[in-house]
Design brief:
By secondary structure, this protein is an alpha+beta fold. The protein has 2 domains: 78 residues, Glutaredoxin; 109 residues, Glutathione S-transferase Yfyf (Class Pi), Chain A, domain 2 (Up-down Bundle), CATH 1.20.1050. It contains 9 helices and 4 strands; from the N terminus they run E-H-E-H-E-E-H-H-H-H-H-H-H. Strands 2-1-3-4 form a 4-stranded mixed β-sheet, with helices on one face. A hairpin with a 2-residue loop joins strand 3 and strand 4. Bound molecules: glutathione (GSH). The site of glutathione (GSH) has 15 residues, from helix 1, helix 3 and helix 5.
């Protein structure tokens, strides 16, 4: 049965799922939904995801959307290699980081929200920076708390790559696209460097999927 990912190169939520699929060794067919051309609003795409967002994943004969639901489905159906740690507390911490990003910042700065906020690129940028600074500051403090609680690790949570990293790295990319200098977040940068050095990180990045990369 073919697995198909509907995604867009620059989408941070798509990057999370590309990375999870690669991490778990799941081959997929790639279908681009061009957000800049408004293809997310087409009837075809709304049938895949009524919210009109990417990513959507057709897997095992099911059409799934929402990256959190997709990652947890992949984890439950293909547990190895894992993306969530074994102990309940560490799993809760991974989910806390995931939620901080998936609910606490990314939805506030996606294309539809920015378009509603203003048509002025400078105002959109100021909005994006405000919400990214707020969330990244919280995330920096959270990772330090987790280090104190579970023992300092190389990645966002502990010494094993987890879903927390798959959310953190794309969000740092989004913050940079808003022009932010991230030097004030050393714990986040250290986790990012460790995560980007893992085997499947580079293949999931926006740069690896932008249209010019395929030519
Ligand atoms: N909570 C969703 C977020 C999906 C989402 O916001 N996707 C963005 C791209 S990163 C999108 O499709 N935006 C289209 C738009 O805003 O029109 C998930 O984690 O999958």
């Amino acid at each position: 049965m073919t697995t198909t990912l509907y995604h867009f190169w620059r989408s941070s939520a798509s990057q999370r799922v590309r990375w999870a699929l690669a991490h778990k060794g799941i081959a997929y067919q790639s279908v681009v939904v061009d957000l800049h051309a408004g293809e997310q609003h087409s009837a075809d795409h709304r049938a895949r995801n009524p919210m009109g967002h990417v990513p959507a994943l057709d897997i095992d004969g099911h059409l799934l959307a929402e990256s959190v639901a997709i990652l947890e489905y992949l984890e439950e159906t293909r547990p190895t290699p894992p993306l969530y740690p074994a102990t309940p507390l560490a799993r809760a911490r991974v989910r806390q980081v995931v939620e901080l990003i998936a609910s606490g910042v990314q939805p506030l700065q996606n294309l539809a929200v920015l378009a509603k906020v203003s048509s002025d690129p400078a105002a959109q940028r100021a909005w994006g920076v405000y919400f990214n600074e707020r969330a990244l500051k919280a995330c920096e403090a959270l990772l330090l708390q987790i280090d104190a609680e579970l023992g300092a690790g190389r990645f966002a949570v502990g010494d094993v790559l987890s879903a927390a990293d798959l959310y953190l790295v794309p969000q740092l990319g989004a913050a940079r696209r808003f022009g932010m200098d991230l030097a004030g977040y050393p714990r986040l940068l250290a986790a990012e460097a460790a995560a980007l050095a893992t085997p499947h990180a580079a293949g999931a990045t926006p740069e690896a999927h932008q249209p010019s990369a395929a030519r």
